[in-house]
Amino acid sequence: MNILLIGSGGRESAFAWKMSQSALCGQLFIAPGNAGTGQYGTNVNLKVTDFEGIKQFVLANQVQLVVVGPEEPLVKGIHDFFLADEQLKSIPVIGPQAEGAQLEGSKDFSKQFMQRHNIPTAASRTFTRDTLQEGFEYLATCGLPVVLKADGLAAGKGVLICLSLQEAQQELIQMLTEAKFGEAGNKVVVEQFLQGIELSVFVLTDGNSYQILPEAKDYKRIGEGDTGLNTGGMGSVSPVPFADAGFMQKVEQQVVIPTVEGLKQDGIPYKGFIFIGLMNCGGEPWVIEYNCRMGDPETESVLPRIESDLVELLLGVAEGNLQERELRISGKTAATIMCVAGGYPGEYLKDRTVTGLDNVRGSIAFHAGTTLQGDEVKTSGGRVLAITSLQEDLFTALQQATLDASRIYYDGKYFRKDIGFDLI
Ligand code: AMP
Ligand code: GLY
User: Residue 52 contacts by C-beta under 8 Å, 6 or more apart in sequence?
Assistant: First the structure.
């Protein structure tokens, strides 16, 4: 069958790499893809939110399965668009409809969902411009630090951890009355701070049954020792040593099952990935956030550990018989190190020639922010390449990924050399 994958980052490179290995995969198209995804299929020059363009392409190329990587087209209703179209409605889309995508698209929606279904999450309340005064009163009752979250999508920047009441009050004013995060901040969730260590758990669901994919840990800060500005993610590892069987059982009972059952009870159809951002607080899982897609760079560590055919699993989602499909997971450890552009996550260098990709031997170089100019690979994004190594243990995987990351060259290249070492 012909498959269209939507997206262009390291996550989509990992999806393309994995799906292209399936005997079920006919032609694989990636829209728009990057300089690396062309190794696994055909790049198609379409924007991820160009639903009309995607429709024309799908019909002209007999696409039989659409896999959506990023959140934006899901929150904007790409799945609903397919279901509402006579010619497209029989073509399965992996990724929830807009209503289910609200788990990521609206923090207020996701908090209400968790409260309604007794899913462990930090205490919170939501405020708007009209209830600013009540927001101040609530802030005064919260301990410190306190967390402020813009309700809508804010490109990963809409969460503030405030250390003083005064800072929290000022930020609340700026978000609600001065549009600090644009429309995304028209509503603000004020939330209790959770102390613990984070991990990401991934669930694939057909809306009825589910499979829990390998968990991963993401490293968000730019600097070594988890310092400096937040980024999209500087590296990841899977499995996560502290997520042992006992902890994962709690995650399944207290979070995964109530989430899948909650969606059903609320009458929200959901076919796709649920990314659960968790805090492990003294051995108990608390939900920080949901995303309606896979994580990046977590996917680059998660998919290499899946031994089963991913297309087969996705067809289980499409056909509503996921529980009958086999999910085999490798016991090896995957480590991913992200090579980023000089200056990232601020203003960063672009259009730099990448060399040394052929020198990568014990890892996979998943392209993220790259484009092809003639035969040359050029940098085009902040996160340039995700270098993933799958090895017997965490130390060996990290060592190999670090070695291979240093075999690549472009002007301004930077990567963290401490990913995963907190877990050894
Ligand atoms: P989010 O966009 O919801 O993932 O939040 C971004 C980051 O802020 C998370 O990855 C956490 O590191 C942090 N964070 C969010 N909510 C909380 C919380 N309630 N307590 C502590 N840290 C949080
Ligand atoms: N790595 C975090 C995310 O994909 O949102």
Answer: none
pLDDT tens-digit readout, 331-341: 999 999 999 99
What percentage of the chain exceeds 90 in pLDDT? 96
Q: In this structure, are residues 66 and 6 in contact, taking their beta carbons and an 8 Å threshold?
A: yes
Strand partners, 272: 205
Q: Could you tell me if 131 and 186 are in contact, meaning their C-beta atoms sit under 8 angstroms apart?
A: no
CA distance 1 to 325: 18
Residue 179 pLDDT grade (very low, low, confident, very high; cuts 50, 70, 90): confident
DSSP assignment letter at 305 = G
Q: Which domains does the chain have, with CATH numbers?
A: 2-94 (3.40.50.20), 123-192 (3.30.1490.20), 332-424 (3.90.600.10)
Out of 110, 291, 338, mutate this one to test ligand 2's pocket (max ligand atoms within 8 Å of CB): namely 291
Q: Which of 157, 200, 220 to mutate to test the pocket of ligand 2 (most atoms within 8 A of CB)?
A: 200
What is the model's pTM?
0.97
- Nearest by Cα to 377 from 356, 405, 404: 356
* pLDDT at residue 119, as a whole number: 98
Which amino acid residue places its CA nearest to atom 5 of ligand 1? 159
Sign of CA dihedral 195, 119, 69, 181: negative
Predicted pLDDT at 186: 87
Convert 337-347 to b/e letters by CB count within 10 Å (16 or more is b): bbbbbbebbee
Separation of alpha carbons 298 and 203, rounded Å:
13
Mean pLDDT of the chain: 97
Mean pLDDT of 416-421: 96
Instruction: Take residue 378 and report the two structure tokens written for it.
Output: 């050029």
| Residue 155 clears pLDDT 80, i.e. is over it | no
Helix (H, G, I), strand (E, B) or coil at 81: helix
- The amino acid at 316: G
CB 3 within 8 A of CB 67: yes
Ligand 1 atom closest to the CA of 156, numbered from 1:
2
User: Ligand 2 centroid to 260 CA: how many Å?
Assistant: 21
Query: Could you tell me what percent of the chain has a pLDDT over 70?
Result: 100
Give me 385's structure tokens. 């390449």
